[in-house]
Amino acid sequence: MKKSLYLTFALLLGVVLVLAGCGNKDNNNAASSESAAAPSSAAASSAAAETAANSLTGKKIALIMRLNTGTFSAQYVDGVKKQIAKYGGEVTVLGSDNDLSKMTANLDSAVNQKFDGILLDHGDPAALTAGVQKALAAGIPVVAFDSALNGVEGVTNLAQNDQKLAELTLEKLAEEAGGKGNIVKVWVAGFPPMESRQISYKAFMDKYPDIKEIAAFGNASNPQLDTQSQLEAVLKKNPNKGDITAVWAAWDEFAKGAANAIKQAGRDEIKVYGIDLSDEDLKMIQDPTSPWVASAAVDPASIGQVQVRYLYQKLNGDATDAVVELEPVFVHRDMLPTDKVITTAELSQYVEGWGSSDLGNTDALKQLEADVVASAK
User: Which residues, at least 6 apart from 163, have a Cβ–Cβ distance to it below 8 Å?
Assistant: First the structure.
């Protein structure tokens, strides 16, 4: 009997130990399973973070331009392209040859092709509002430069301070002319920035009654050659020194044409004051034989960069300002070196306020640039 009890107890103990062993094995298997799953979960989190960080790469952007003429536009486009490349995107430039109907068609095409974002350059609200609203309804963000689309909710409007651009150059003209003389105005209607510059011009003429306008003209279709041709005719009608004191040109393409006409006519007493600045323009201003002595401008490449930043803010879901204004600087020949020719890339060494702007940059966009650089390595 006693021996039977011992056998029974031994059997029960054996069963308990076996069950305990199985339980430990199951627990160990579960722990091993959790340990194996941990790296997978961490990798997934890392991948998700990387995806979120790079969600703005690979975007396809349309740049739709009304005017695609001259070196200012070329440097502006270069600024757009370089900034989009920094974000890992692609840009398609659609030029409209100063034809608003063509610009409208380009905008409709960009919407139909489902670009991720649209940049507009020198548009017109009457021509583009319907197309812009179509883009916004399709979920395509729009940032416009010098297009006066302020009445369209959802669009960020980038613009130079055009009235100040005109004021800076006109006041210098008045100073160097002694507040009197005869001037020629080269300007064209129908462009929002031109209309703003005209406001300052009218105020200037009211302020200086001894400054007289003896001729005014302007054509945006072939601006440089047309200005040169028309000013040559004006010079022939006013052949004597003192007949014309200065030319005020509301666009650098106009200023180049005017400077060429004056130089070829040998009328070195006439000075040219312009607006906008490119490398080609700066070289002319530095030339002591050139009549073009001063200009007011915003760095064209910087304009393109800032415009792209605001578009990518929108693509990131950020709230953006309805209006962004870029402040110009004044550049006169007297401010520049005489022993060498410089480019706009070097201009900040001589003119305070010129050069690249950090306007529109955000921590998210800086991280995006860093991600694109890292992925390229």
Answer: 196, 197, 199, 200
